[in-house]
Design brief:
This protein is of the alpha+beta class. The protein has 15 helices and 14 strands. It starts with a helix and ends in a 45-residue tail after the last helix.
Amino acid sequence: MTIERFSAIVARINRAAMHPRDWSQAVHDIVTALGAKHGGLVVSGSSSRRMTACSLGADDLRRSYNARFWRIDPIASALEHEPAGVITTCEELLGPEYLRRHPFFRDWMVPHRLGNGMLALVTSGANTSWIGVYPDAGHDLDRALATSTMRLLLPHLRHALNVQSCLADVRTERDQAIAVLAAHRHGLVIVSSCGAISYANPAALSILESRDGLGMGRRGHLESSDNRSAVGLRAIINSALREYGPYVGGRALIPRHSGGSSYALLVVPLDPKVECRDERTSAALVVIVDPDQETSGGPIALQQLYGLTAAEARVAAAALRGAGLRSIAEELAVSVNTARTHLQRAFEKTGTHRQAELVRMLTTVLSGTGQFEGTAHHGIRTSPGPPPQPESDERAAQDEGGSVEHSKDRPQSG
């Protein structure tokens, strides 16, 4: 093999690490260089085994292997116990008699006219990978030439597969992070070092597209349609993005033309410690909160978190909105005493003693867990509500409304 051809194969292998679709061509180049007919790259995990790539024109070989024959492949099972770097043949690994009696040979190798192939174990351990290069049935490879060539290619194959694995992990982490950002109920915007928007989650896009106080400028910048607020917003974002000196950021209120409550913005610098051409890449996160948007979570969330009955959860949710005991009773069409009893039991189950304490705790809990409430369509699954619990059947006499305190000395209804 010439140096030019070997270099071309190595370049193809390295490209396949970045572009997995190129693996078929890379395997085909190796097969051709070794004077074989077909070949495949197999990767084994803890519970599965797949031929991830095959030489050109061998798609049926790959499909049949992945659909059925990977389960009974004795070659892969034997290779997985060998150290990385081993180069052998099917018959040397298993013995010619055992191999020919095995259904894998009869039902897969023979129909595809695969001869005594050369096997090279690229990586071993939790994820085992190996390449098999097969001559046509009845023919043999030039063992010395094939072994020497494969030995030269193994480090490049190992490097490419390691790079591909690392990139796959990074892509998975990125996709999970994007799914979290996309599911967040408040607007999240990332502005880059030049001040342009580099990412906006669905909530932010909805706000920007409405152009009700906030929007995206012609140069892709986050801007306010209120002239006075626009100057302050630009200054806060610049302070979070500036290259020298401390990062600052800040908060701002952005008025809305529709008459709704002003958006509350938090701008915080992001410092990923990334260096590129001796210039630090700065970015800032802008959190956009719409005060008119109802807090997610409610009676169902309280039942899930604290085991409240449906009635107790409705009373606690009403108290959370700031309603007094009489107003709660009227809203839920129950007596004041019944509402008080439900509220007292909510105190017990949440570990609180006063209505103000209950409201403070539930506001914190629901505003936190509610950021992702009902966002299964963005990739984060929310659990279903608890099974319905029986309502309390007590009906106490009407009493004066007002705030309730739970006292350990006060007798509780059964």
